[in-house]
Specification:
By secondary structure, this protein is of the alpha/beta class. The protein has 2 domains: about 70 residues, no CATH class; about 160 residues, no CATH class. The protein contains 8 helices and 6 strands, in the order H-H-H-H-H-E-E-E-E-H-E-H-E-H. Strands 1, 2, 3, 4, 5 and 6 form a 6-stranded mixed β-sheet that branches. Strand 5, helix 7 and strand 6 form a beta-alpha-beta unit. The radius of gyration is 21 Å and the shape is globular. It starts with 8 loop residues before the first helix and ends with a helix.
Length: about 240
């Protein structure tokens, strides 16, 4: 038995647009999944989504459905990104986004893709490492009249250590810089189709050629800071040369 909640018209239009990339026989399940995501309480897990949406008996079929959605993540994210650009950045020529990696804790010794990573957040126990997943996340930055600047996650890639990438996972190893560059290329294509320019804000960890070169080639403008060990010898030489002339 499922809940009888009905989403507002604006939400239904978004869900219908996202469902176009799914099989017609199964696309109706996306409506229930969205209701579960909106009204779930406690830990944000798939099980909590099912409880909020009233998915009790045939829950296994919904697990398979979410797996099928995962294989079409980029296509679904493209539709969502273009809808967001038309709604939020309609009067702006520039789309501002932020890119960084974030850690999520997981529990259990056999969680696929999980590993030991450096903890980016200072915790009360002072733990320098955590067990879980690392995600390279691209988020659109918007200014809310009450909450200030907030980030809207658009697409993410899971980073897995090279030693943890096995043949069974069928995953090729990529560094965080390579994953970040792919996210920028994807976002740049979306912006170009709608006549927008893309600006990316990152920290100094991404100020490296493996990320900067492909991102700039894709047409994105990168806003970042220099690394702590950076040296601008060429710029100083150019100034001295101009002064001598």
């Amino acid at each position: 038995m499922f809940t009888e909640w009905i989403l507002p018209n604006s939400w239904q239009l978004i869900v219908n647009a996202l469902a176009n990339f799914l099989h017609r026989r199964l696309a109706w399940r996306l409506h229930l999944i969205m209701i579960g995501i909106l009204f779930a309480k406690g830990r944000k897990t798939v099980t909590s989504w099912f409880r909020a949406a009233g998915i009790i008996r045939k829950y296994k079929a919904f697990y398979y459905f979410i797996g099928a959605m995962g294989r079409k993540t980029e296509a679904i994210a493209t539709v969502l990104f273009e809808i967001m650009i038309n709604c939020i950045y309609q009067k702006q020529n520039r789309v501002l986004a932020a890119l960084d990696d974030t850690a999520t804790k997981r529990y259990g010794p056999k969680v696929q893709g999980a590993g030991i990573h450096r903890n980016p957040i200072t915790t009360p126990d002072g733990a320098r490492f955590i067990y879980g997943h690392i995600w390279v996340v691209l988020s659109a930055l918007v200014r809310h009249k009450h909450w200030g600047v907030i980030g809207l996650p658009l697409l993410a890639k899971m980073y897995i250590w090279a030693k943890d990438v096995s043949r069974e996972q069928r995953t090729r190893f990529q560094t965080k810089l390579q994953q970040a560059a792919e996210l920028v290329k994807w976002a740049s294509k979306c912006c170009k189709r709608l006549g927008k320019s893309l600006w990316i804000v990152t920290d100094g960890g991404y100020t490296k050629a493996d990320f900067l070169k492909p991102s700039i080639k894709a047409g994105a403008t990168i806003v970042t800071r220099l690394r702590r060990d950076a040296a601008l010898h060429s710029l100083v030489k150019n100034k001295l040369k101009r002064a001598a002339e």
